[in-house]
Structures are given as structure tokens and as C-alpha cells.
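User: We ran a pulldown and think these components assemble together. Before we commit to crystallization trials, I'd like a predicted model of the whole complex to look at. Sequences follow.
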Amino acid sequence: MITPWLPFRTRVAMLARLMTLQGSYNYETMIGNGVAFAMEPALRLLPGGRGGDAYREAMARQSRYFNAHPYFAAVAVGALARAELSLEAPERIERFRTASCGPLGSVGDRLVWAAWLPLCSLIALAAYGFGAPALAVVSLFLVLYNAGHFALRIWALNVGWRDGLGVASALAAPIFRTGPAILTRAAAFAAGVALPMVIANAVGVRFTGVAVIALVGGLGATVLLLLNGRLAGWRSAIWLLAASTVAAMVIR
Amino acid sequence: MIGISGIILLVLLGALCALDTVSVLQGMVSRPIVSATLAGAALGRAEDAVVVGAVLELFAIETMPFGASRYPEWGSAGVVAGTTYLVGGAGTAGSLAIATLAGLATALLGSLSMVRHRQLVARVAMILRDSIAAGSGSAVTRLHLYGIVSDFWRGAVVTAIGLALALVFAPRILGSWYLAYGPSAAWPVALAVATAAASIVRSAQGVPRASLFLAGGCAIGLGLVFAR
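Assistant: Here's a predicted model for the assembly, 480 residues in total across the polymer chains.
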């Protein structure tokens, strides 16, 4: 087996392409085409170069069905690029591709979509509730979220490249097991602080007004929880707001 | 009144924010608190537009972009909502309700258009299937660029439709709005709080002691409002 080397420029090109990983997202191959697109700069280093047999075989393999969390997919891109440049057996590469979809999806969903994003969102909402200027609220949210986002993408590509097909151990790191729970607790706390402040700021009411709106909101939340996900709050709000708009125009 | 250059700027902004939802970066410029505020900034009134951005952000907490699931597209929705709020005269009775409604309706339209867009990309992938299966790097790149460019246009069309409807109907609706400011503003906020609270409680239920953190946060939040 060959020990491959990845030039810095190639790594940067892969990272830049990873930012568009879901550009060709579709219901047939999911992000498979995006994985091949992100890996393509590395595959040019294969014997025969761009358009050579090894390049074409690798591109064909990597553009097949693949699905994972878009940030964590960088782990697979790094690992698969190393495997291809090490001239690993195609069967091993295929097995890794198939096996990595689930873990890279679930870890990313739990850590980023279910924990990190809501936490950053609620911190920004709390800043709004505290009366921070609009552009400060937006900057706080974008800087905070993307500090984690970019760090994760860079780490993912590097660890994938470093460990190759043995990267599974990196995903067993304690942060991926305990991180979501810690972030969820922090998000719950931030939500508690943010919601009353946002009500007060958005409607322009004091404590009694906030308490009334929070009570109505609490009742609505209870209904949504009792329906156990059968009704999406944002969708039902469309109908409720449309109905109240008609009422507000008709009832004098 | 927004001029034609302003509308073009907003459509462009909506398209870029929509692109961020899935295809490019996913740096959360597409979140409504960002996109609505950016729309306000484009019109010189970011401080007003952030209000509807914050309300929509509460709705958005319920909907995270999990894989192939169908979720609202908040990038263009935020731009439409922010603009509607300003056109309706931010802070007037009904303006927050109408802007929130415009944002949610655009998010729904964006969600439907994303499904169609993904089906369209799959069709193009089928056309290029033989070249891609033969390992053509240019076919992979072509499909990828097609997906990104068409997603940009999808976002532009969704934003343009949302803006057109909002600019035509919002002033007329608000012209015959009889409800007072208080309940008009409180209602969309209460709906947003209900949606966000349900989502937070649901995720807190799966984590030990998270409910205590939520309760503690609520006590502090209410205390801060009381102390104001």
C-alpha cells in the first residue's frame, strides 16, 4: 500500500468544494455527486493524472449514492481520498462508503442540527431580547455558529485524511457522545431566558403582557406536544394567521 | 415605496440566502433572523426588520434541515417578511402579523420548490448517468454547477413571487385592518413562542436535567422582564 501525500493547495481546494457539497443534492444519489466533486482535486494525484484509468474508476465509485450530515461528510471525503490515493481495494472503499453513511449522519444531526444550531439561534434571540442592535444580533449569531461550523469542517477533513478507512475511532470521541446533551441543556437554558425577553421586545409589553402572551404560547405548545409531532407549529400558524387576518379586516 | 433597483437587490439577496439553505456554505445566512435583518439593512432599516426576523427565528427552531426531510426554506422567506414588515409600516397595527404570514407562506413555497428542484437535479443526473458512471470529472462538475445555478434561480423566483404578493396585498390588507396594535402584534408572537417552546421541550425531554435548565432559564428571563 502507498502512503499518500496531499499538497496544501489540494486540501484547500477540497475544503472549498466541501462548502458546496450539497450543490447537486437529489433524491437519487443524495450527496454522492457532491462527494465526488469535493474529492476530485485529490483524485487528480492518482497515477495517470486527470482522465487516467485510476482517476475515472475512482470518480465513478465516488459519485454513487452517499448520504451523511453535510459537515461530517468531510470525514468521509478525507478518508476516501486517502484510500483512493493509497490504491486500496475497491471493495474496501465501497464497504467504507456504505458503512459510514449512518454514523456520519446521526452524529452530525444530533450535534449540529439538534444542538449547536438551536443554541446559537437562542443566544442570538436572547441578545435581541436584551436590546442589542440588529447588526450585533446577526453578527453574534453568524460568528458564533460559523466558528463551530468551520472548525468542524476543517477538523473533519483533516481527521478523515489522517486516519483513512480507520477513522471510525475518531467518531467515538467523548465529545460526540456527551456534546449533544451538554449543548441541549445550554440551549434549554438560553431558551428560558430568551423567550420572555423576545416577547417583551417584539411586542413592546411589560411583565403582565409578557405573562399573558407566554401563557397563550404555553397552551399552544402543550397542544403541539400532545399531538406528538403530527402537527407542525409553523404550518398551523399559517392558517391561524390567515384566519386572524380575515377577522381583523372584518370585525370592527 | 421600493424602486425597481431595490426590488432587484432584494430578489438577489433572497436568492443568495436561499442558496445558503442547502447548496452553498450552509453558514446559516439563510436563517430568518439574518435574512430578514439583511433585507431591512438593504432598505436602510435593519433595526425594524430584526423584529420579524426574531419572530420567524422562533418558528425556525422547530425546523432543522435534517437530510432528505421536507423543511421550510427560510432564506427567501426572511427577505420577504423583512420587506413586508417595512412596507407595512413597522410598528403599525397588523404589520407584524402580515409580515409573519408572508414569511411563513414564502417558507412553505420555498419548501415545495426545493422538492421540485431536487427532482429536477435527479432528472439531469439521469441524463448524465452514463458519463458519470464512466468516471467523467466534467460530467460530475456539470451536474454540480447545474444544481447550484438552478437553486439560485429557484430562490430568486420564490423571493420574487413572495415580494410581488406582499407588495401588492400587504398595504391593502393593512388599510382595512381594524384590530388594535397590542393583540395584532401579540398573536404572531404567541404562535411563534408556542412553536419554539414545543420544540425545545421535546428536545429537552430526551436529555437528563435539561428541563431543569429550561425552568431555570425561564425564571431568570421572567425575572429580567419584571426588573425592567
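The two ends of chain A are 81 Å apart (CA to CA). That may be worth checking against your pulldown data before setting up trials.

User: Thanks, that helps.
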